[in-house]
Amino acid sequence: MRFVTRMVGCAVALLLCGCAHRAVNAGAQNSVAAEFVGSSPSDALVRGFLGGLPSNAPCHSIKWQLTLLTNPSTGSPATFDLAALYRVPTHSNSNRSEDGPKVALHGTWEIRQGAKSRPEAAVYRISVEKPQRALSFVKLSDGLLHLLNPDGSLAVGNGGESYTLNRADLSEKPGDLALAMSAPEMSYKISPLATGPTVFGVFEGRTPCLGISRELKIPQSGACIKAKWRVTLYRNPETQAPTTYKTEGSLFREGAREGAWSMTRGTATDASATVCQLHPTPTQPALLLWKADDNVLLFLNQNREPLVGHADFSYTLNQVAAK
Questions:
Q1: Which pLDDT does position 29 carry in this prediction?
Q2: Burial, 203: exposed, middle or buried (Cβ in 10 Å; 0-12, 13-18, 19+)?
Q3: What gap in Å lies between CA 234 and CA 239, rounded to an integer?
Q4: Who wins on pLDDT, 183 or 157?
């Protein structure tokens, strides 16, 4: 697995270098406004837009680098370059990944307004011709875009990847891969999946490790490159009021973090946003999760600013099963 991880890093570096070269060439006519990177699941919506891999071919994930360019005279949206890399199962072990097809797309983009759960938000729509097709992303913050379903709702990822893209120049620096490969494997326990009327939601995902560890005052070495999460939120089945939470995963190997939680309002840029505040423990501050959609939570720092991930992981949790 560690050898595979090293190969993934090399493949992504080559992919990004190629995309950067295209962006420079495109910049002769248009100006680079922003670059967004991330790793997402590979569903029919995304594959239909990207192409390059048969719809029935197995695929673990997709690496993205989306470069948005603007007209240098007007500053208005102009063109985009998109480099994508399919990560497919290896022939020897279907649970491991290797590089699959690469896709390079060029087209136009525009800014619209309104997503299903965020009617005032800016929506970035990228379009390609021959054949004509489009994808839309809602702007969650200056550092985050999130893929939209055709009905305008936020696309829901899984326990491994999300549909959030991170602005490259604001991205968190990844942990040290060489240290991670030499570190001993460590296990942890996860409770059975909670169900029933007392469950508000169960959310899972993988995020960068170092940024959230600093926020929660959990000591970590540079070898920590990712954190695995399950957050279970409970409620009163009669009043629907929040009651308790349980947070499990790789940062809580000695036992789950548990306590009370409440709904609050306001992020640093949106006073009306709903925030799930997991109350502090004797050793850790509150854990703040922005409820961007019924099925998508995003981590906030203590200043209520959305955390920005990097090319491998985003600070996003996805509901395990819709209510």
A1: 85
A2: buried
A3: 12
A4: 157
Taking Cα atoms as reference points, which of 82, 77, 76 lies closest to residue 22? 82
| Half-sphere exposure in the Cβ direction for 309 (13 Å, CA) | 29
Report the C-alpha gap between 36 and 154 in whole angstroms: 17
The string of pLDDT tens digits covering residues 106-129 is 999 999 988 787 788 999 999 999
pLDDT at 220: 82
Q: DSSP class of residue 273?
A: -
Chain centroid, CA 200 distance in Å? 22
Pair 172, 37: CB distance under 8 Å: no
Higher pLDDT, 249 or 187: 249
Query: Could you tell me which of 321, 308, 293 has the C-alpha nearest to residue 151?
Result: 293
DSSP assignment string, 251-268: T-TTS-EEEEEEEEE--S
Q: Which helix (H) or strand (E) holds 103?
A: strand 97-113
Q: What's residue 115's pLDDT? A: 78
Alpha helices in 27-121 (DSSP H): 44-50
Residue 20 burial (C-beta neighbours within 10 Å; 0-12, 13-18, 19+): middle
What CA–CA distances, in Å, run from 177 to 99, 174, 208, 214, 297? 18, 8, 12, 19, 27
Contacts of 278 (CB under 8 A, 6+ apart): 231, 245, 247, 257, 259, 261, 286, 287, 288, 289
The model's pTM:
0.88
Residue 250 sits at φ, ψ, to 5 deg, of: -70, -20
DSSP 8-state secondary structure symbol assigned to residue 117:
S
DSSP string, 29-51: TSEEEEEEEEEE---HHHHHHH-
- Cα 198 to its chain centre, rounded Å, is 28
Sign of the CA dihedral with 307 first, then 313, 314, and 317 last: negative
Predicted confidence at residue 181, as pLDDT, reads 65
Q: Give, in degrees to the nearest 5, the angle at Cα 98 between 146 and 298.
A: 20
CA 73/CA 287 separation, integer angstroms: 44
The CA-to-CA distance between both ends of the chain, in Å, stands at 35
